[in-house]
Each structure stands twice: as structure tokens, then as C-alpha cells.
Write a structure and sequence with these properties.
heterodimer, A: mainly alpha, MetI-like fold, B: alpha+beta, conserved putative lor/sdh protein from methanococcus maripaludis s2 fold, 21% strand
Chain lengths: 283, 727
């Protein structure tokens, strides 16, 4: 009984921060059903400079689906950007699968001179923020004539070090005995990688992919820097273009953008946790 | 959550998004305007000017008749076509006959009035002539009397002298004594003459002063009431001479080379004479003045020669010449004229002055004594003539309002004081002359007493008697001379007064004018009566207005208005003001009747003008050839005028107007949008040089001939609209 009361109190107390954290999502959801006039009334003081303080109501006073129609029917731009985002994200993830998984496997399972140094280099590069790499990347992309193309976004991301780092942890955790047994059974290196490494490290691969998806779905600096043609822009650049007049559209777009991330998250929740845990464990 | 379920959800989401992608694309493309592009072309801009109007008559003809006649019947209606000679309306004959009768009576009345006025005038004329004749007669009588007295006095003097001479001859006095005595007598006579002269001068001066006072008063009155005087003179028709004299006379006098006052006044009189002569000749002052001149026969032949020179004249003798025409021929004197003969003498005392008006009133014949002065009869006759104008000046005076008494006194005082010194001098001269004369006489007496004393008392007594008689005769002669002068002066004045011309009287002339007017009216009425009061159309035409009604009286102005068909017709069309520049006088236009049946080509424009009531409309007038279009027909006028070739012409649909009324065209531009490369309309400002209802010509510079612009669109577009180029 006493324990139950204590749990209740703890839950109650934790609800407050939870509500604070969840609030923006609720905010966006309620905005989808608000009319432009209502949005202007609430947000005017912040966005349009009208007098008073900004307010918000989680329940729309005049519920309407007009922002939804405005986005889904009247904004072909939104879909262009949506598919751009899908293309970029999937392209990057596929590329990482092709290059990152073998790289992680190699680093984790083979011993060769300079392996330690290479791994350290990977770590250092992983810690580098984008701002540091931006200029060199720009120059390289310019030389390769990859500026203002989707490839210019995809290729650098394909060779990102973070998924290698995540997967390295999982591959490294595969017991040596399993691999030796396979060798004894006559399996070659490739067979061992495909038949034993990938299945056993799949949790690591999936978690790396999910983390990668979340990162690249919301990617904003790279397209902003390297893409000039508006037709190539991903969805993350749609919202900055929205003004107060289309605030409803903005909220709707935000929710739409949230949906794929949510689905991926729900689908790969277990792997995600594992991946995050793996990244947290220091060697 | 099951993984498969999640995968299904993701798949559904993606399919949904795909669907909406297609849907939104379709919706978007439905909202894009399909436009066609075109390039500016080199072409001519044709302007078609069109205007409609009605065919009107060129000239209206007003039918008028005598005002105030009763209308019997009106035979026409408005809009009716009439031919020349057609009956328009008829007057009531009874009323017309009555009017004719009335007019006849009026004329008769007028004639009687004229007769009355004429008889009145002739009576007045008679009276005036009588008065003048009387004045002249009085003058001549008094002058004759004076001259008779003078001549008698002279005869007496001569007789007394002769007696004395005879007695002395008989007595046998010494020749030396006689000689000395003659010398004294001579001196005595001279002194006497000088005295008479001085006395005459004094009289003349006094008369002049009076005249100067008169003039001054009149002038003061005139300047004070100049406007009024002017009015009155205009009204009464006072002769020009009357108002001109005061100014002109001194001017004439100045022309004479004399600085002395006496001479001046003399020439003044002469100038008056000249003036009179001119007037008589011009016949301006009327027949009366002429008649007066003729009656009095004071010749004015030499009038304008004027200029009484500065010679001193004094009256020596006055004679009435009865029959001496040949002798006085040079002064233009007919027989039976009153002639006052004045002897001239070149005097040594210039301060004596002339005898202006005094002698001016006299006729000097200068018998045998032409020496020195060179003065001549015409000058004097000029003076005589001065009567008339002088008096007419007086008549001007009569029309002047009386001055206030104080002012009049002041002016009189002033004039008199101006002449005071002269008057005193003259007075003194008289006194001196008298003293001299008395002294000379005393000397002569003393001498004679001396001689007589040396004689025996009886003869001395006898001689003394004779001498006394001579002396008395001498005194009597002097008095007579002075009296004659006075008579001449006063007589002339009364004649002048009688010679005043009368105010003009135009009553008869006015009556005559009225009569002729009435006669004209009568003739008109008579003509109407003759035509049985029927008014006919003077020309072929259409009745456009009837201003008479049966039973009422005819108006003063137009009775019936006709559109004159013989003068042709014209059409006036209204066109908008902005098309005025495309049409001008002489342009050949096409006129088409409203029903389209008649089409007239190449009709020249007669005039183009702005409509007075509405400035946004212009009126174009063309003459319609005879018998082509009926008056009142609606018609359309059109003219196509081609401009020069313009290199940049676009269809009018491609031209847009912004809110500032500036013209622009829309070109297309590729833009880079989220949806890819799209076409967008962009604004290009242009200047329109010319346009018609289809095309506009653009000024060069803003766009080029190779630039594509939007010439048509399937929906309204403006700057920034996304467009899709078709074809």
C-alpha cells in the first residue's frame, strides 16, 4: 500500500515534465484543426507584432480541416519536398548499408596494421561537427560538380562514421568462438560475414539505420548549404518558408513530417534502444 | 505493435502521400493560365473615326410680318414641307383694314403738326429779323445824328473861322500878326485834337474793361459748369462759333505782330470779324447770320485779312455818305450803307493805343491820308463783322449757370484792378491833353488880346466877338466828336445784342422723320391689305417653327420659321474629343444614312469644332450634296486614317494598365521554384505612341522586336502569375 502511494506520487510528479515535453506535439496537432483567423489571434503578438501576449488553446474554438486541405490539395510544393526527403534519406541509408556494414565488420573482426589508428581517426571524424566540415565538403563537392544535386547530399552522408561506430560495437560483441566454428566448418570470410556477421549484428545495423533515418529525415544544414535549386529541397526546408498567413499549413506540415519518423521509431524501438546503449558503452 | 502492422501503416501512408501528390499537382496545373506569346510587329495603325448625327438645313428662313395684326388662319403645321408661294397663314382682314385706316390718320396728324411748327418758326424768324433791323436802324440813326451834329459843329467852326478871317482881311491886319496867330491856332488845334483823342481812348478803354469783366465772368462760369454747359450746348445746338471764340480770338490776336494792348484788342476784334466771315461763308451759323450780314451790308470781304495794325486812329469827322459806291468799292460797301469815315493819322504817341472796338465799329475809308499807319478799310470792316460772333459768345454766356455773387464780385474786382493803371493813365492823358489845350488856348487868347489891345476898341470888340465865336464852335465840335464816338460804341453794342443767333430748333426735322417712318409702315400695311392679308412661303422649305396662333396678334419677331431647302443641307456628327486629331477640315469621309440605303463617299469635312456644352465631344460638319439625304435623316459618318508605320505594334489585349494609369506589357520569365522550372509573367513598362481599338504602337526602347510578350491568356493574369505557354 505504502509503495503504491509512493509510486503514485512519483508518477504524478513525473507527469509535469512529461507534459512539458509532449506539449509541442499537442500544440502542433491542435494547430492542424485551427482556422487561420484563430491562429492569428493566438500567435499574432509573436509573429505579426500585434498587441498583447501570445496564447494557445489545445482545443480549437472553431475546428476546421481547411489547413489540411490547403496542404494536401493546394500545395504541390509540399509533396515535391516530401519525396525529396524520402529520396535523400533512403539513398543515404542504402549507401550506408553498402559501405558502413563492411567497414564496421572489417574494423571489428580483422586485425591489420594501423587498425587502431584508423579507428581513432573514425572517432575523431565522428566528433567533428558539421560546421567544421562544411567548407572542405563544399570545395570538394564543387570540384566534383556535385553541388546543387541530391548526390552532393547523399554521398558525404553515405560515408558517415557514426553508423560504422554503432555497428562496430555490435560486430565486436559477436563471440570469437562462433566465427571459429564457422571457419572450421569451412566457411570463407565472405560467408562468415554474410551468414554469421550480418544476422548476428542485425540489431546494430537496424539501430544504426533508425538513428540515421531520424538524423537525415530532419537534416537541414546540408541541403541549405549545398542545394540552390528549390525543386531539390527536402521537407525540412518547407517549414521555414511558412509565414503567419499559412501557420495552419505549417502545423499540418509539421505533423505530416512527424508521421514517418514516428512509424520508424515505433517499428525499431528495441533496436534503437540497443543502439543507443551500444553507443554509450565505452571500450 | 506488430512489425507487419507497422509496415502496413507505413506503406499506406506512402500510398496516401503519393495520391495527394498527384491530386495537388492536378489542382495546381488547373490554376495556371495558358498563355500565347507573340512578338511586336511592324505595322500601321488605322484609326476609324465614327460619329452619328442628323441631317440639318443649312439656312433657316424667318417669315416675319407686321407686328400686332390679328391672325385669322394658320395653314401649315410644324414639319410640313412647303413650296415657294404656298400659303402659311392669313391675317384677319377687318383688323388689317382698321390698322391701315389708323395709320392713314396718324400720317395726317403728323402733317398738321409739321405745318404748325413751320408757321411758328417763320413767325419767330420774322420777329428776330424785326428786332435786328430795329437795332441797326437805331444805330444808324444815332450814328447819323451824331455825325450830323459833328458836321454841323465843324461847319460852324469853319464858318466862325472864316468870319474871323474875313473880318481880319477887311480890317487889314498885319500879315506878320496873322502868321503868328496862325501858328498859335495850329498848336491850339493840335491840342484840341489830342484832347478829343484822349477822351475817345478813355471811352474805349472803359468799354473794353466792361467787356473784359463780362468775358471773365463768363469764362469762370463756363469752367465751373463746363460739363453742364457742354450738355446744354449740345442740346440746344449752339453754334460752334459761340464756344470757340473765347479761345480762338486771342490766338488770332497773337498772330498779329503787335505787343501793345490797344493793338491787341483791335486785332481781337479783327479776329472776331474773321471768325464771323468764315462762319457766314460756311453757312454754319445759319441763314439768320447771313441775312443779318446782308441786311446790314457790313461787308466782310476783307474779314480774314484782319490785323488792325498799331496805327493810332482817332475820329476826325463823321459823315454819312449817301452815294459814293465807287469810292468805297474797295471796302465792299454797297450804296445806302452807313459809313463812318475815320481819318487816320500817324500819331507820335504810341501809348495812346489803338481804337479797337471803337473804331472797329466804324468804317474807315482813309481818304487821302494813307501815310504812316498803312491801316486799311478791310481791317475795320473786319471789326464790324465782329458783332455776330461776339454775340454768339454772349449766348454761350446765357447758358452758363449764374456764379455766386461773392465769386462774381471777386472776379470783377480782379479784372478791374488789372485795368486800373491803364484807366488811370488814360484819365491822366485826358487831363493832360485838356490842360495843354487850355494852355494853348490861353496863349492864343493872350496873343489875340495883345493884338486886339493894339487896335481900336470897336474893331477889337468886334474881333473879340468873332474870336469867341470860333472858340465856342471849337468847343462844340470837340464835344460833338466825343459824343459821336460814344454813340458809335453804344450803337454797335445794341446791334450785337440783337444779332444773337437763336438756339437750333429741329422739331420740324424730327416730325419729318417720324412722318416718313409712318409712311413706310403705312405702305407695308397697304401691301398686306392688297395681298388680302395672306402670308406666303418665300422659298421652298420645311416648317420648323410656328410662332403665331389663330386669333392672337402677330409677334414682333419671327412668325414662321422655315428650313430653307434651296440652300442645301449639312450633317453634324458627334465624335469623342480624343478622335479629333484624326479628322480635319477637308478630310474625305463616308456618310451613310441610318437605314443603310444611301452611302455617300468622299464627302469633304467642312468644319471640326468642340461642342460648346460638352468639351468631351467634337462636332464634325459636312455638306450633304443636294437631294441625297432628307433633312432630319439620321446618318453615320466615318473616316479611316492610317498612321505611319510603327515598328512595335502589339494587340491591345496585350496592353495592361496599372493603378497609376501607366501602361505595361507582360513578358515571360523562367523561375526556379520548388515545383521545378516554371514560367512567370513579368511586367515591362512601355510607352504607347498611338493606338486604335485593336492595336497599340509602343515607343522603342522598353522592349525589342524580338521579345516575346503575352498576347493572350485563358484567365486573368498579372505580374507574378505563373503561366504555361501554349504552342
Amino acid at each position: 500500500m505504502k509503495k503504491r502511494i509512493r509510486n503514485f506520487i512519483i508518477t504524478f510528479l513525473l507527469c509535469f515534465p512529461a507534459a512539458v515535453i509532449v506539449f509541442p506535439v499537442l500544440f502542433a496537432f491542435s494547430g492542424v484543426f485551427m482556422s487561420g483567423y484563430e491562429l492569428k489571434q493566438y500567435l499574432g503578438p509573436v509573429l505579426a507584432g500585434t498587441e498583447g501576449m501570445a496564447r494557445w488553446s489545445l482545443i480549437p474554438q472553431m475546428p476546421t480541416l481547411s489547413p489540411l486541405t490547403a496542404l494536401l490539395i493546394d500545395s504541390p510544393q509540399f509533396f515535391v519536398m516530401f519525396w525529396n526527403s524520402v529520396k535523400l534519406t533512403l539513398g543515404i541509408l542504402a549507401g550506408q548499408m553498402l559501405t558502413g556494414v563492411p567497414a564496421a565488420w572489417g574494423l571489428a573482426r580483422f586485425s591489420f596494421p594501423g587498425r587502431k589508428l584508423l579507428y581513432t581517426l573514425y572517432l575523431v571524424l565522428m566528433l567533428m561537427p558539421f560546421q567544421v566540415l562544411m567548407l572542405p565538403q563544399y570545395i570538394v563537392l564543387d570540384r566534383l560538380a556535385l553541388l546543387d544535386t541530391h548526390a552532393g547530399i547523399i554521398l558525404p552522408a553515405v560515408f558517415s562514421t557514426f553508423p560504422v561506430f554503432i555497428m562496430y560495437r555490435f560486430f565486436h560483441g559477436i563471440p570469437e568462438e562462433v566465427l571459429e566454428a564457422a571457419k572450421i566448418d569451412g566457411a570463407g570470410n565472405l560467408q562468415i560475414f554474410l551468414r554469421i556477421g550480418i544476422p548476428l549484428g542485425s540489431a546494430g545495423i537496424v539501430s544504426a539505420m533508425i538513428l540515421g533515418f531520424l538524423e537525415y529525415w530532419n537534416m537541414i544544414e546540408q541541403p541549405m548549404t549545398y542545394l540552390k535549386t528549390r525543386a531539390l529541397w527536402p521537407l525540412s526546408l518547407f517549414l521555414p518558408e511558412i509565414g503567419l498567413e499559412e501557420a495552419g499549413t505549417g502545423f499540418t506540415a509539421a505533423v505530416m513530417m512527424l508521421i514517418p519518423a514516428l512509424l520508424v521509431f515505433l517499428g525499431g524501438q528495441d533496436y534503437l534502444e540497443q543502439g543507443i546503449a551500444a553507443a554509450a558503452v565505452k571500450e | 505493435m506488430k512489425r507487419s502492422k507497422l509496415t502496413g501503416l507505413t506503406g499506406a501512408f506512402l500510398i496516401l502521400m503519393l495520391l495527394f501528390t498527384v491530386l495537388s499537382r492536378a489542382a495546381d496545373s488547373a490554376g495556371i493560365a495558358n498563355v500565347t506569346l507573340g512578338r511586336p510587329q511592324n505595322m500601321m495603325i488605322a484609326h476609324v473615326v465614327r460619329g452619328t448625327g442628323r441631317v440639318e438645313q443649312n439656312q433657316e428662313r424667318a417669315v416675319v410680318t407686321e407686328a400686332g395684326q390679328r391672325v385669322g388662319t394658320v395653314y401649315v403645321n410644324e414639319g410640313q414641307k412647303v413650296e415657294k408661294g404656298d400659303l402659311l397663314f392669313g391675317l384677319d382682314m377687318d383688323s388689317l383694314e382698321e390698322a391701315v385706316l389708323q395709320q392713314k390718320q396718324e400720317i395726317r396728324k403728323m402733317k398738321l403738326q409739321i405745318q404748325d411748327a413751320a408757321s411758328q418758326e417763320s413767325v419767330g424768324e420774322q420777329q428776330r429779323a424785326n428786332a435786328q433791323a430795329q437795332a441797326a436802324e437805331n444805330y444808324s440813326l444815332s450814328a447819323a445824328g451824331a455825325s450830323r451834329a459833328l458836321s454841323r459843329a465843324k461847319e460852324n467852326l469853319e464858318k466862325a473861322k472864316k468870319e474871323l478871317k474875313d473880318y481880319r482881311k477887311e480890317d487889314g491886319a498885319g500879315a506878320e500878326d496873322t502868321l503868328a496867330e496862325q501858328e498859335l491856332e495850329q498848336v491850339c488845334e493840335e491840342c484840341s485834337a489830342a484832347y478829343v483823342q484822349a477822351q475817345q481812348n478813355l471811352q474805349t478803354l472803359q468799354w473794353r474793361i466792361e467787356k473784359a469783366v463780362d468775358d471773365a465772368l463768363r469764362q469762370a462760369g463756363q469752367s465751373g459748369t463746363a460739363g453742364l454747359v457742354q450738355n446744354m450746348q449740345e442740346k440746344t445746338g449752339a453754334s460752334d462759333g459761340a464756344e470757340n471764340i473765347p479761345e480762338e480770338a486771342p490766338a488770332a490776336a497773337r498772330a498779329v505782330p503787335s505787343e501793345e494792348p490797344a493793338g491787341e484788342s483791335g486785332t481781337e476784334a479783327g479776329a472776331f470779324g474773321a471768325r464771323a466771315a468764315e462762319e457766314i461763308r460756311a453757312g454754319e451759323s445759319g441763314t439768320k447770320a447771313g441775312a443779318f450780314g446782308a441786311k446790314m451790308s457790313w461787308g466782310s470781304a476783307g474779314g480774314e485779312q484782319t490785323a488792325e495794325p498799331e496805327g493810332e486812329i482817332w475820329i476826325d469827322s463823321i459823315t454819312v455818305e449817301e452815294t459814293k459806291p465807287e469810292k468805297d468799292a474797295e471796302s465792299g460797301m454797297p450804296v445806302d450803307d452807313v459809313i463812318i469815315e475815320s481819318d487816320k493819322e500817324s500819331g507820335d504817341k504810341t501809348e495812346n493805343g489803338g481804337t479797337p472796338e471803337g473804331s472797329a465799329g466804324l468804317e474807315s475809308s482813309a481818304p487821302g491820308d494813307g501815310a504812316g499807319s498803312g491801316s486799311s478799310a478791310p481791317g475795320d470792316s473786319a471789326g464790324l463783322g465782329s458783332g455776330a460772333p461776339g454775340d454768339s459768345a454772349g449766348s454761350g454766356n446765357s447758358s452758363v449757370l449764374p456764379l455766386p455773387q461773392q465769386e462774381a464780385d471777386r472776379i470783377e474786382q480782379e479784372v478791374r484792378s488789372r485795368y486800373a493803371a491803364e484807366l488811370e493813365e488814360a484819365q491822366q492823358a485826358v487831363d493832360e491833353a485838356l490842360a495843354k489845350k487850355q494852355k494853348a488856348e490861353a496863349a492864343l487868347d493872350a496873343y489875340r488880346q495883345e493884338i486886339l489891345a493894339s487896335r481900336d476898341s470897336q474893331s477889337a470888340g468886334q474881333e473879340q466877338q468873332l474870336i469867341d465865336a470860333v472858340k465856342a464852335a471849337q468847343t462844340a465840335y470837340e464835344d460833338a466828336a466825343i459824343a459821336a464816338n460814344e454813340a458809335a460804341v453804344t450803337g454797335k453794342r445794341s446791334v450785337e445784342t440783337a444779332g444773337l443767333p437763336e438756339a437750333r430748333n429741329s422739331t420740324i426735322d424730327i416730325y419729318r422723320l417720324e412722318l416718313s417712318q409712318k409712311r413706310r409702315e403705312f405702305l407695308k400695311l397697304k401691301r398686306l391689305e392688297k395681298a388680302k392679308g395672306r402670308i406666303k412661303a418665300p422659298v421652298d422649305g420645311i416648317v420648323t417653327g410656328i410662332y403665331v396662333t389663330a386669333g392672337d396678334r402677330t409677334p414682333d419677331g419671327t412668325a414662321v420659321m422655315l428650313a430653307d431647302l434651296t440652300k442645301g443641307c449639312r450633317m453634324t456628327a458627334e465624335i469623342p474629343q480624343d478622335q479629333e486629331k484624326y479628322i480635319g477640315r477637308g478630310d474625305l469621309v463616308t456618310v451613310e444614312s441610318g437605314d443603310g440605303k444611301t452611302k455617300l463617299e468622299e464627302i469633304p469635312v467642312e468644319s471640326v469644332r468642340t461642342k460648346a456644352e460638352d468639351e468631351s465631344v467634337c462636332l464634325v460638319t459636312v455638306q450633304i450634296p443636294e437631294n441625297k439625304l432628307q433633312i432630319g435623316t439620321a446618318a453615320e459618318l466615318s473616316l479611316t486614317k492610317k498612321s505611319a508605320a510603327f515598328p512595335l505594334c502589339i494587340p491591345l489585349a496585350a496592353l495592361y494598365l496599372d493603378e497609376k494609369n501607366q501602361t505595361y506589357v507582360l513578358a515571360v520569365q523562367e523561375i526556379n521554384s520548388v515545383l521545378g522550372t516554371e514560367m512567370e509573367a513579368v511586367k515591362v513598362m512601355v510607352t504607347v505612341e498611338d493606338r486604335n481599338d485593336q492595336y497599340a504602337a509602343l515607343a522603342q526602347g522598353s522592349i525589342s522586336a524580338s521579345q516575346n510578350i503575352i498576347v493572350s491568356s485563358d484567365r486573368p493574369i498579372d505580374e507574378g502569375s505563373r503561366v504555361r505557354v501554349v504552342s
